[in-house]
Specification:
There is one protein chain. The chain is an alpha+beta fold. It contains 25 helices and 20 strands. A 5-stranded mixed sheet has the order 2-1-3-4-5, sandwiched between helices. Strands 12-16-17-18 form a 4-stranded mixed sheet. The longest helix has 33 residues, at 431-463.
Length: 645
């Protein structure tokens, strides 16, 4: 059996190498001129010569193994392959099988010529591939370093059909990108977010691309995903392309046709604010924070029946492990307990259990107190800034000193550059020494420039102090607005909670430590709140309710208490009797015989709290609150608020 073989790689196509059809024509003409009849010509179009794993070549090798091939004709040796060792092994294998190889352009016939020159040719062909690959890699690297290599853009963006380096926001898809981030920030995990998109009939990225190709009359060969999956949500959630960041050279390939590996962030080419963002920096950072906490603390991989408001936030104050769901009912999660205790028992840790409704109340109270403390900070802001100026002996004196320091640093920088030139001239024609001197002085120059920039930043801070004061007041007022929004809402959302709270520690001694996010933690730090007993919580609920209504009955009172605590009707009666015995509540006359007599409150809220000795923790919050913060801390807090709130 006489067969021919033709191959053309994608690189060959770009270089206008002899086409597959031309190779076939050369093979057929040679065969006819030499009295040979070609039974079939096998081909591999678009396959690199550096790999021998090609469909057409594999089929030929299968026929050779079965002893069905007598002669193989190829245009030249490079069509068989460009891998030196691989091609030599292939030729040796064909020789042992008695197969005759004819390479037309190389004037080689294995029945006539020796193989001495073949090794040189295969080496040359491999060098051709490697040199070409190196040139391509260098060109791509240069484009990456300049931010000009845009191979593809993620869902939410669309490439310019005419200018390869340009791309724009895809308004149709951008709506759903925002929805994905907001749903995740509001407590939806990967699965819940994907399910929500599927229920709304949102097209997947491949569905959108397939539809647009068909609309343009282009035959689409895209493998279409008919529904959103968790991996797609994860890729979108973690991609900082959506905040305007362009990352290039994220992976490199090990050799020609080798495996790709991801490289470290330090080696990537990163361009911030390279294009319009779809997602705000604040929302992106919030989502990454939630995502990181879930990875660290949540081993549950399914879709929960109920939203876990405190997921990733609750921790055991004694062993440090996360608190997991302990109980739930038809209404949702009811309590949490230490994960280590639930998995390993009392020998490892104690329960540290807490009722979710109790936790809701504690968080709400804590945020009310924090809001009050922040309001006091705003009111004392002027005196804090005035004290900062007084300690630095006045604004003008401080500015003068900073400007003198920056002038001195600039003069030192000038001397460094002059000395660098003199020293390089002094070494004459010694390039190695000149390079070492240059690097040393460059490091000195960079250190001096950093110092100058830091000094200039301090000058700008003091010169803009009056502006800073108004900006800080405005931003702190915005923060108060967020606290008010949360406090007045029927229930706090996952997104609101994640924005403010970093961690909540539950201790065995019935105390709770709440750590707020960012610089807010510098104000409200090292604080613990003592949990109330269940009886005190119920009394406080009663006090809050009856001090805001004209009259009430037992049924309404019982329903109000059950919003926050579980209690039986018989257990409420003695508590209500205490209010009556202390003279805080009086029973009125019946309006009708069938009616239960209503009750009225005759004491103030503060009087009842004092009478039952119920602590509201207001003293605790002020005792630990760092209201005497320095100006630098105020600036940091202001920056955090303006960025995240």
């Amino acid at each position: 059996m006489i067969i021919g073989y033709a191959r053309l790689s994608k690189d060959d196509q770009r270089k206008k190498y002899v086409s597959i059809e031309n190779q076939k024509d050369i093979i057929n003409k040679y065969a006819k001129a030499n009295g040979l009849v070609v039974d079939k010509i096998y081909e591999d179009d678009g396959y690199s010569g550096y790999t021998l794993d090609r469909p057409g070549l594999n089929e030929i090798q299968h026929l050779v193994d079965e002893g069905l091939v007598d002669v193989i004709l190829v245009k030249d040796l490079s069509r068989l392959g460009r891998h030196n060792a691989g091609v030599l092994l292939l030729l040796e294998r064909l020789r042992k099988r008695g197969v005759r190889i004819i390479m037309i352009d190389d004037n080689y016939d294995s029945n006539v010529d020796d193989d001495d020159i073949v090794g040189i040719k295969t080496w040359y062909n491999e060098r051709f591939v490697k040199d070409g690959s190196k040139k391509v890699r260098n060109a791509l690297k240069n484009m990456q370093e300049n931010g000009n290599l845009i191979m593809s853009v993620p869902y939410g963006y669309i490439k310019d059909p005419y200018v390869k380096t340009k791309y724009y926001i895809d308004e149709e898809a951008a709506v759903w990108v925002k929805k994905i981030f907001e749903t995740y920030a509001d407590g939806g995990g990967y699965k819940k977010t994907a399910k929500a998109l599927n229920e709304m009939g949102v097209p997947t990225p491949s569905m959108l691309l397939d539809r647009r190709k068909r609309e343009k009359g282009i035959v689409s060969k895209i493998k279409v995903a008919t529904g959103w999956e968790t991996n797609a949500i994860r890729r979108i959630i973690q991609n900082d392309f959506y905040i305007g960041t362009l990352r290039l050279r994220k992976t490199i390939r090990n050799g020609i046709n080798g495996d790709q590996k991801r490289i470290s962030e330090e080696e990537q080419h990163i361009f911030e604010n390279a294009h319009p963002s779809i997602i705000s920096l604040e929302l992106f950072k919030l989502v990454q924070s939630i995502n990181e906490r879930r990875r660290e603390s949540n081993s549950y991989k399914g879709t929960r029946k109920y939203d876990n408001l405190y997921g990733g936030l609750l921790f055991c104050g004694d062993c440090g492990s996360s608190l997991t769901i302990a109980h739930y009912n038809d209404e949702g999660i009811t309590s949490y307990a230490c994960r280590v205790y639930r998995e390993r028992g009392v020998s490892a840790c104690s329960a540290h259990s807490i009722n979710k409704k109790e936790l809701d109340l504690i968080i709400q109270d804590y945020l009310i107190l924090c809001r009050s403390a922040m309001k006091s900070m705003i009111e004392s802001l002027d005196s804090i800034m005035h004290e900062q100026l007084r300690q630095s002996n006045g604004k003008d004196k401080k500015l003068k000193m900073l400007k003198e320091n920056i002038k001195t640093a600039q003069e030192e920088l000038k001397i460094i550059m002059q000395q660098k030139i003199r020293d390089i001239k002094g070494v004459g024609n010694d390039p190695t020494m000149a390079e070492m001197i240059s690097q040393t002085y460059d490091e000195m120059r960079n250190e001096k420039l950093t110092k100058i920039n830091n000094l200039q930043a301090q000058i700008n801070e003091y010169e803009n102090m009056d502006k800073n004061r108004s900006d800080i007041k405005r931003n702190f007022t915005t923060a108060l607005g967020l606290f008010d929004e949360i406090i007045k809402a029927p229930k706090i959302s996952k997104r609101q909670l994640e924005t403010l709270v970093e961690k909540i520690y539950i201790y065995e001694n019935q105390s709770i430590e709440i750590r707020l996010r960012g610089e807010l933690g510098n104000i409200f730090k090292d604080q613990t709140i003592m949990r109330m007993s269940k009886e005190d919580r119920i009394k406080r609920t009663i006090i809050n309710y009856i001090s805001n209504v004209n009259s009430f009955g037992k049924v309404k009172l019982l329903n109000e208490i059950r919003k926050y605590d579980t209690i039986a009707n018989y257990a409420m009666i003695p508590i209500l009797d205490e209010f009556i015995q202390k003279g805080y509540v009086k029973q009125t006359e019946k309006r009708h015989k069938a009616d239960h007599p209503p009750y009225i409150c005759v004491a103030s809220k503060d009087e009842m709290l004092r009478g039952f000795n119920i602590c509201t923790d207001i003293d605790t919050i002020y005792r630990y609150c760092n209201l005497n913060a320095q100006f630098e801390t105020i600036i940091k807090i202001n920056t955090w608020i303006s960025r995240y709130l």
